[in-house]
Design brief:
There is one protein chain. The chain is mostly helical. The chain has a single domain, classed as Helix Hairpins. It contains four helices and no strands.
């Protein structure tokens, strides 16, 4: 067994693994790239809207939530594909639940954005 990294070396390795994960998802997942582009465009509108700091944080969090859900979904799909190329009910269930996670994150974001933007329009 390899000795565990500690201190700054552990942080450096963690950052390296995160970079590799970002590179992999950006390269392999079209839906992640689409969500980054759309989410980034939505975030770029925030400075032009009459929102307070709490509202901005909530809106940013919903976009990050979509990205997190897509990352988890992609990880589940990669594991399922590694386990077997054959169709299996449990692998399908895992992939379907990952897709549901992403869908619910998107629905959550749409509802929160709609409510906050509607309330901002009433001010």
């Amino acid at each position: 067994m390899k000795p565990a990294h500690t201190g700054w070396r552990k942080i450096w390795h963690s950052l390296t693994y995160a970079r590799d994960g970002f590179t992999a998802i950006w390269r392999d997942e079209v839906s992640f790239r689409q969500e980054v582009y759309l989410g980034g465009a939505a975030l770029l509108t925030l400075p032009f809207l009459p929102l307070n700091a709490i509202e901005i944080v909530l809106l940013v969090a919903t976009i990050i939530g979509i990205w997190l859900a897509e990352i988890i979904n992609s990880a589940l799909e990669a594991l399922a594909d590694r386990i077997s190329d054959e169709r299996h009910a449990l692998l399908k269930k895992a992939k379907d639940l990952g897709a549901l996670l992403v869908l619910l994150a998107i629905v959550n974001a749409v509802i929160i954005w709609a409510v906050i933007l509607a309330a901002a329009g009433w001010r």
